[in-house]
Write a structure and sequence with these properties.
Blueprint lengths: L2 E2 L3 H4 L6 E4 L6 E2 L1 H14 L6 H7 L4 H7 L7 H12 L5 E2 L3 H9 L3 E5 L4 H10 L8 E3 L12 H10 L6 E5 L2 H9 L4 E4 L6 H6 L4 E3 L5 H10 L3
Parallel strand pairs: 2-5, 2-7, 5-6, 7-8, 8-9
Antiparallel strand pairs: 1-9, 3-4
Helix pairs in contact: 2-5
Amino acid sequence: MLRRRIHSRILHRAPLSAVLFDWDGTLLDSFRADSYAYVQMFRAMGIAWGEEELRRHYSPNWHHLYLLAGLPQERWEEADRIWRKHYAETQPELLPGAREVLNRLARRYTLALVTSGSRDRVQRQLQRFGMNQMFAARVFAESTRMRKPHPAPIQLALQRLGLRPESCAYVGDSAEDICMSHRARVPAIAVLGSFPTHERVRAARPEVTLRSIRELPRAIDGWVDRKP
C-alpha cells in the first residue's frame, strides 16, 4: 500500500455497508484495448493523435478527449461507432486478483458498479466474466446526463442501494473517480493501474492509495477496524 490518509470525517462515519467500483482500469485491464481503439478512430477521423497524445490527455470522459483533439461535435457519433468497431477487435481481461477481491468483499459488503463505460459494452463484459449477479446496482455512462467527475453517477448508485454516502466507499483509478466520490461525500480509494492517470490521481487526494486491487481487502479491513 502506498499511502493511507484517514480524515476525521471518515473516522466518524457510519459502519461500512457497501463498496462501489469503477470498471475500466480498476477491475478490467483495458488500457491497451482503449488506446488501440482510440488511435484507430482518430486515424480514421483524420486526427494526428497517437498513444503519446492519449497518455498525456487521457480522461474516462471520452467527450473531453474529443474536445481536446479538436473533433467537431457533429462527428462524435461517427467517432463512437468507429471506436466501438475497433474495441470489439480486442478482448481485455480482468486485472489479476480482481475476481478474488470481489468474491472476498461480497461476503461482507454490498457491491455496486459506477462506470463511465457504455451499458452495452460493460454488460457484455460482465456476462463474459460471469459477473451479472455480482453488483447490486450498476450505473453506466447512459444512466445519468452528467458524467464523472460530477457526483450524479455515484449519487444514483446510492439511491438505488438505499444507502447514505458515509456508509460506502468508492474504488477507482482516475482523478475523475476521486473527484466524483468526494463531491458525493463518499470516501475514495485509488488503485494505480495501467491507465496513465497516476499523477492526477495523487493530486486528487484519495483517502487511500493502492498499488494493486489485490491490496483492497486488507486496506478496507484496516480502515473499518480503525477506531477514532
